[in-house]
Structure formats: structure tokens, C-alpha cells
Amino acid sequence: MRILGVDPGSRAAGWALVEFRPAPFFRGAGVLRPATDVPFAERLRELHETLLAVISREKPDIAAVERVFSGVNPQSLITLGEARGAILLALSLSNVPVREITPAEIKRIVTGTGAAEKEQVRHMVKALLGASAPARLALDAADATAAALALGTLTARSGTRRVVASPIPLTPRRTNDPLVRTNDPVVKRRISG
User: What is the span of the domain harbouring residue 128?
Assistant: First the structure.
């Protein structure tokens, strides 16, 4: 199963494709960056069209889109909501089923804690992908990859659709790794082998 993860944003929207066979295998990622010197409606169109091109090229079976539920600045939330609308429309027009996942749920599944920092998420994404992990991964693309990994794990745990993978297998890591901060014994056991 090919899962497209999307981290919505009006200035930068991350995307990543992870294939589960049954272990997660990284297929590609990027960051959509519409021009900022054009009217907002043009940026939304550009986000929509570039994501349509990604969907057409990568042919995902399902998409995991980060759900936004709170924020400090109401205007920023509105802008982000409009960008999400352009992204969700592209997925819907392409007949790609969408599962929305909160950032805390993604972080909890991938890192073991819902309060992980972006750098921790990127570190764990690379660990989870093992040999297929890219050498470099932008933070927005890492967040999108984490969304795809989280959906793959949720799908496996719930048995919905097809089982795409057993819960994410981790490559052995030291539990004293400074980027891995968790009290979850299951995650610690996976990390330490």
C-alpha cells in the first residue's frame, strides 16, 4: 500500500510517499512552496495544482493529512485552513481516500510522545525507515513522512482495509539517544532491540 503523507501549509506544504511492503519503504518526499509574491488565491491554486501533479506521478492508495485543531493566531488558523482545503480538494478530485490525523497522534505513534519536537520527529522518521531513509529530509517533508508512517501503523493495528504493516519496526538504537525522549516501554523496547 502506498500512503501519501501531507503536512499542510500555505507557504510550505510537505508531502511524502511511503510504501508498506509490509515494512515501510520511503519512495519520495518534497516541499511544495508556492510563490509568496502573488495574491493568496494564486498560492492556493499553485498548492492545489502541484499536489495534483504529485498525486498523478506517485499514485497513492490513501492519504494521511495532518489535522489542525488549535493555534495562537486566529488569522493563521484561517489561512492554514484554506490551504488544507486546497490540499483536500486535490486529493478528493484524484479519488484518493483521506484520513486526517492530529499532530499529537502522529508524534505519539512515531516518537512515543505527543509532545515531540520537529527535530525528534525527523530523527525517528529516519530511524523507522532504516536503509530506505533519505540522507536529507526537510522538516516539512519529515512531518509528512511521519503522517504516512502513523497511518500505516494505525491501519495495521486496527486491521482496516488491508493490513499494511505490523506496527512500525525500529532499527536498534541506544535508549540514551538524546533525540529519543520517551517513557513508553514499548517504544523503548523497539529502540533498544
Answer: 2-192
Which of 170, 146, 18, 8 is CA-nearest to residue 78?
8
For strands 13-20 and 24-32, give the pairing.
Answer: antiparallel
Q: Which of 44, 29, 60 is nearest to 140 (CA)?
A: 29
Three-state SS at 154 = helix
Cβ atoms of 8 and 80 closer than 8 Å: yes
CA distance 120 to 88: 27
Q: What is the pLDDT of residue 156?
A: 74
Task: Extract long-range pairs of 128-131: CB within 8 Å, 24+ residues apart.
Answer: 128/24, 128/168, 128/169, 128/170, 128/171, 129/18, 129/24, 129/25, 129/26, 130/23, 130/171
Q: Are 150 and 128 contacting, i.e. CB atoms less than 8 angstroms apart?
A: no
40-58 and 74-93 helices, crossing angle to 10°: 40
Residues marked active site are found at 7, 66, 140
Instruction: Give the domain CATH number at 170.
Output: 3.30.420.10
Q: Is the pLDDT of residue 5 over 50?
A: yes
* Count of domains for the chain: 1
Residue 166's pLDDT is what? 37
Burial class (CB in 10 A: 0-12, 13-18, 19+), 115: exposed
The answer to whether the beta carbons of residues 29 and 145 sit under 8 Å apart is yes
